[in-house]
């Protein structure tokens, strides 16, 4: 099977909604791919002579009236995204390469900045279809997933409910009233209405002083704890579990060559800078993913075994934590969804927290934008299963790829 159908459901409450599909065409030498507005014709852009060149084809797929379903057909794609907008179309551009200039949630001068838009991510190759919702950069429009395989089994991610943006923004304001850390600055408005809630990492991009010392006292406590206690990190890969202690202000692992200076708040929120920058050493990058997740969830003072000692109910229980991630998970109907880049890290055999579905024999992916139509009706017509966590090696690769993709997107957006 070289093509697959997606059913796109418009539940935004608006009759003006659009979808876009972008990625790399696996069966066409990984060429840059966009789906044209008819929902079935491929568009392979050629390299333009200048930056910020408009697309040569119309790639805005109209979703029709709210409550209706539009079916599209895709080829094998890697690093792909399914974008949605409400109330207006999105503008994509090309840079020489060709490189796709995507909509930005962190650039106020971007043509799409004041449009309601969001996306989910997927890869479909000869092995499987893997799809996840994402709030890593921001949250605007709720997205729900239902993946049916050829045996008739359906996996779901319920996502956030209709009206969730206002719920998230209200909770951010409440948290800021509690600690005054600046959580309300993650709320972006337009015309007096909530437009999106951005992640702390995106918020720091918009305001470099935001959260500059937020995690400092927590990091100090962690470093103090592991001066006299031993931290064990399971890489969930070939390297197995490694232990570490703090000496001379550095967290030193038993491998002898893997060390960490105290991470800054920016490094913790980004998962990919400073102490947590991608190193290219697969063992260290696996440890980095697990440390970054533990800091965002604030579990290092509770559990000396990461991530296998973690209990989901203890996530975000410290007053100093990634409250954006806490709020997003608390608002999600099933508690799942990527809220930071390594949100797929978890105990071996644990329930997926990242809001993903995957299957080696997919039949139909249904993606609903605007919140699930009805969880009750879905249960009547499908067999609902909770996705178990993908293998740790896959998680590690996906996390590294997400960080690398961020770098590529930053370069492609340069104007």
TrEMBL record:
Pfam families found in the cross-reference section: Glyco_hydro_64
Biased composition (Low complexity): 350-362, 374-392
InterPro entries xrefs: Glyco_hydro_64, Glyco_hydro_64_fam, Glyco_hydro_64_N_2, Osmotin/thaumatin-like_sf
Domain of life: Eukaryota
Domain GH64: 1-371
Stretches for region Disordered: 350-415
Start-end of Basic residues biased regions: 403-415
Protein name (database record): GH64 domain-containing protein
